[in-house]
Design brief:
Elements (H helix, E strand, L loop, with lengths): L5 E6 L5 E6 L7 H6 L8 E6 L4 H12 L5 E6 L8 H13 L7 E6 L1 H13 L5 E6 L2 H7 L4 E4 L7 E4 L4 E4 L9 H18 L1 H15 L3 H19 L17 H10 L6 H19 L4 H13 L12 H6 L7 E2 L2 E9 L2 E8 H21 L1
Bound molecules: nicotinamide-adenine-dinucleotide (NAD).
The site of nicotinamide-adenine-dinucleotide has 28 residues, from helix 4, helix 5 and helix 6.
Length: 375
C-alpha cells in the first residue's frame, strides 16, 4: 500500500470485483488504474458535477490522457437536478454522440446525486458499461458512491434505478476542501453511523478524532473514509442487491431521518437528519430491545462532538415527522425492518408492525424533546 493511501478490494461475485483507493491525491492515480483494467478501456466518459472546481479535476484528466486513453467530459448539473429522467436522457444522447462502446468506461465525478444518475446511465447504456466513482463530497465518499445503488427520482426519491457496482471507487479527500460546512458535516454523520455499526477501534478512534475531522485533517479523513467504505462494502458483499435484508443494517437511523427530511420539505440536510435519527432510534431501542440508555448517551456524545444535532427539532415536531413513516421504502406490507443498536458495534434487525414502530419512535422522540426542554 502506498504511503498515505488505503487500497482495498472486495469480491461481489466471481466476475464482479470492486476496488477502492482512498487518500489525498488519489485522483491522480486514476489514469494508472484505468490503464490496468481488463479488458482494456477504449475511451473514458467523464460525467462531471458542475459544482466541483475544475482546477481540482484537470490534473486527473491529464493523468488519464497520459495513459493514452481518450477522454470526453460531460458537465452535469450538480445536486438533485442531475437525478431526473430528463437529465439522464440528455446524458444517454451525449454518450451515443460520443460513440461510447461496451469497452468504454464512465467515470462519475461529483456528489451523490451525480454519481447516482451517471451510474444509472452507465447501468443502462448498451445494457451496462463499466463505471468508476470519484466522489467529491464527504457523503459521497462515505456512502453514496459505494455499494452499487444507482437511481433517479420519479414520483419520489430513487424510485427508478439499478444495482450496478463500480469497478473502482477513487475517494480523494482533497475534494472536500471546497465543500460548504453543512455539506461537510452532513457527510460526517454517515461516518458516525458506520462507526456505530462497526464499533471497536473505528468507533473509539472516531470518538477521539472529532477535532481533527472538524478541521478537515487529510490523514484523519483518509481513515474515516476508508473505514466507512470498508463497513459499507462488508455489508454489501453479503447482500449486493438488497435481497436478503442484511443490507438493511446500513439504514441505521434512516427510518426517522427520511421521515424528518420529508416533514421538513427537504430543508434539513440528509446527514443532519441521520444524526438525529441514530439518536432517536437508539432511544427507541431502549424500550424495544432493552438497549442500555448509556448507549444512547454515547451516540449523543459522538454526534454532538462532530458538530451535528443530537435532538429532534421543535419544527417539524415529533407527530408531524413520525406520520411520514407511512411512506418509508423499507415498509413491507404493514411491517418495517428496523435496524436497532443493541450496543455500539452491534445492530439487530427487528421486524415491527408499522403502528408499533411509529408508536415507539414517537415516544422516543418526545422523551428526547422533553429531556432537551429540561436542559
Ligand atoms: N447510491 C447510494 O447508495 C446513496 C446513498 C446515500 C445518498 N445517495 C444520494 O446522494 C445524494 C446526496 O449526495 P451529496 O450529499 O453528495 O449531495 P449532492 O450530490 O446533492 O451535492 C451537493 C452539492 O455539492 C456540490 N459539490 C459536489 N462536490 C463538491 C466539492 N468538492 N466542492 C464544492 N461543492 C461540491 C454539488 O454540485 C451540489 O451542489 C442524494 O441524491 C441521495 O439520494 C445515494
Amino acid at each position: 500500500m502506498a504511503a498515505g493511501f488505503e487500497r482495498r478490494t472486495w469480491c461481489i461475485s466471481y466476475s464482479d470485483r470492486v476496488e477502492a483507493l482512498v487518500g489525498a491525491g488519489a485522483r491522480l492515480r486514476l489514469g494508472e488504474a484505468l490503464a490496468g483494467i481488463e479488458p482494456s478501456v477504449d475511451k473514458v466518459a467523464v460525467v462531471l458535477d458542475s459544482g466541483v472546481p475544475r482546477s481540482l479535476v484537470e490534473p486527473m484528466l491529464a493523468g488519464i490522457r497520459e495513459q493514452g486513453i481518450p477522454v470526453s467530459v460531460y458537465v452535469s448539473p450538480g445536486g438533485e437536478k442531475a437525478k431526473s429522467l430528463e437529465a439522464v436522457i440528455e446524458l444517454w444522447r451525449w454518450m451515443l454522440g460520443e460513440e461510447l462502446t461496451r469497452a468504454s468506461v464512465v467515470v462519475a465525478v461529483g456528489g451523490g446525486a451525480v454519481t447516482d444518475s451517471a451510474g444509472f446511465a452507465a447501468a443502462t447504456y448498451m445494457r451496462g458499461v463499466r463505471w468508476v466513482t470519484v466522489p467529491t463530497t464527504l457523503l459521497g465518499m462515505a456512502d453514496a458512491a459505494v455499494g452499487g445503488k444507482t437511481a433517479v427520482n420519479m414520483a419520489g426519491k430513487n424510485m427508478v434505478g439499478a444495482f450496478h457496482q463500480p469497478r473502482l471507487i477513487v475517494a480523494d479527500v482533497e475534494f472536500v476542501e471546497t465543500l460548504p460546512e453543512r455539506e461537510y458535516r452532513s457527510g460526517l454523520a454517515e461516518v458516525a453511523k458506520h462507526s456505530l455499526i462497526r464499533g471497536g477501534s473505528f468507533y473509539r478512534w472516531l470518538r477521539d478524532s472529532s477535532p481533527l475531522l472538524l478541521r478537515r485533517d487529510m490523514a484523519a479523513l483518509t481513515r474515516a473514509v476508508a473505514e466507512s467504505v470498508d463497513v459499507k462494502m462488508g455489508v454489501v458483499v453479503q447482500d449486493p442487491r438488497e435481497e436478503k435484508g442484511v443490507r438493511a443494517v446500513l439504514n441505521l437511523g434512516h427510518t426517522y431521518a427520511h421521515a424528518l427530511e420529508k416533514a421538513s420539505g427537504y430543508t434539513i440536510p440528509h446527514g443532519y437528519a441521520v444524526a438525529v435519527g441514530v439518536v432517536v432510534e437508539s432511544a427507541a431501542a431502549e424500550r424495544i430491545i432493552g438497549t442500555d440508555p448509556a448507549v444512547t448517551a454515547e451516540v449523543v456524545s459522538l454526534v454532538s462532538s462532530l458538530g451535528l444535532p443530537s435532538a429532534p427539532p421543535r419544527s417539524p415536531g415529533c407527530e408531524e415527522t413520525i406520520a411520514e413513516i407511512r411512506l418509508d421504502k423499507k415498509r413491507r406490507g404493514d411491517k418495517l425492518l428496523l435496524p436497532l443498536l443493541e450496543d455500539i458495534g452491534r445492530v439487530r434487525l427487528v421486524k415491527l408492525g408499522l403502528e408499533e414502530a411509529r408508536k415507539e419512535l414517537l415516544a422516543a422522540c418526545r422523551r428526547l424533546q422533553e429531556a432537551r426542554a429540561r436542559g
